[in-house]
Amino acid sequence: MDYLRAVLNNDKKSEKQHLNNLVKIGKKLNKDVSTYEKELTKLASIKTSTKKVVRKKTTTKNVTSKKKTTTYKNSAYNISKVTVEENQIIIDFKHYIKKDYIHYSEEKRGGKYYDIFDFDGRFEDASPTKLVMNGVDRIRITQYKYRTLRIELINDYNLKAIYIISKKRVIIKILNLKNTTKNTSKSIADKIRQNKDKVVVIDPGHGGKDSGAIGDRKRYEKNTVLTVAKHLYYDLKKRGYTVYLTRNKDKFIELRDRTKFANRKNADIFISIHANAVPKSQWEKAKGIETFFLSPARSSRAKRIAAIENKTDMSTMNNSSQNALLTILNQSKITSSQKLGIDVQQNLLYTARKKYKDIEDGGVREGPFWVLVGAQMPSILIEIGYITNSTEGRRLFETSYQKLLAKGIANGVDSYFAKNQ
């Protein structure tokens, strides 16, 4: 766990120390640790540059800039620029931003659809700035309140808008602009061609003799996750991606064979789709959407869910053996998997909540899921809802909701590749 923290915190010195320990553990387990030895060699090569970065952090200049970053939020103007590029509105802040800096709502007034984005901040040039985007009737930008910059997208049809947070920048992206110009048509065609180079493997959980979780009225997890996976398959294909399903019918597949398939297809990302469950006494309390990436679980909740999903494979290993193996196998892709999980979870919630406002955010969590162990690419496991909850269990078998979930996941895939070329 100390090594994982070092990776996430970009602490190269600590990363090297713990990576040495992982190589030793791997050799004791008779695992191929050549990849990790190469990683050690890379870390050794950047030793000098790492020291320079550390010394720079202690200089007066950087201490001053750090203080400036923390005080920007309370300064007069903390938004530096707002621009439009093709189907995107880009808002640049002077400091790092969090999710709670943005508030989104939708309205319909006088036959027009309004997508309203409120930002916690001030923009000196809000009044003179004019934003124009082909396919959107009007974009209005105002300093709505002293600490609130408002951007409104006003259109005669309902726009599908998502937003992406990246360090000091927010990107509002419109996914369904009409092809108003040849240039727009060309950009969409270019994007589809570009997506063909991206390979996505979708894994519908369970199947065959393994029904997965069972909800009320004998609703089987294996059935709904297969349907959602198929909707996702066709949605991603329309967007130009090269897509494969580990199973396209009610068939049992060993957990280890699912990622072997993804590796053979040279997948860029691996997405395993599941539905959650709890004991009957908790049926109505437990609900929400959660996304997991591979790591030794920290929370009892993650361990409980992983135990359910892992029961068809590797059940004989004890906890310490599992954690040691997970740490070795996952170190190279934990950060990318976490980024993928965040993008998918955010877009999945945003899309699903357009119809159902009561959907709870279970968060992005670490979890020891064996179906993700062998993947040689960023990989996540999505629990699309609790099949044991009366409301979510019913929705999970409604075609309109299944398509909504698939669209949210697809939007998350778009977001991940947009930020991680």
Q: What is the number of helical segments per DSSP (H or I, 4+ residues)?
A: 13
CATH architecture of the largest domain, by name, is: 3-Layer(aba) Sandwich
Proportion of beta-strand residues: 15-25%
Which spans have pLDDT < 50 for at least 5 consecutive residues?
Answer: 47-74, 301-306
What form results from the Cα inertia axes? Answer: globular
The CATH C-level name of the largest domain is Alpha Beta
Mean pLDDT: 81
User: What is the β-strand count?
Assistant: 14
Helix content: 40-55%
CATH superfamily of the largest domain: Zn-dependent exopeptidases
Would you tell me which CATH topology of the largest domain applies? Aminopeptidase
- Give me the strand/helix succession: HHHHHEEEEEEEEHEHEHEEHHHEEHH
Reported for the largest beta sheet, the result is: 6 strands, mixed
Distance N to C terminus: 28 Å
Content-based structural category? alpha/beta
Number of domains: 3
Strand order of the largest sheet: 10-9-11-14-12-13
Which terms would index this structure?
Aminopeptidase, 3 domains, alpha/beta, N-acetylmuramoyl_amidase_3, four-stranded antiparallel beta sheet, Immunoglobulin-like, globular
Report on the architecture of this protein.
The protein contains 13 helices and 14 strands. A six-stranded mixed beta sheet has the order 10-9-11-14-12-13, sandwiched between helices. It has helices spanning 2-8, 12-28, 34-45, 47-57, 60-71, 182-195, 221-238, 255-264, 300-310, 319-330, 334-352, 390-395, 399-419; strands at 79-85, 88-93, 102-109, 112-120, 138-145, 148-155, 161-166, 169-174, 199-204, 242-245, 269-276, 289-294, 361-367, 379-386. 40% of the residues lie in helices and 23% in strands. With 421 residues, the chain is α/β, with parallel strands linked by helices. One of its GO terms (cellular component) is outer membrane-bounded periplasmic space. Keywords: Hydrolase.
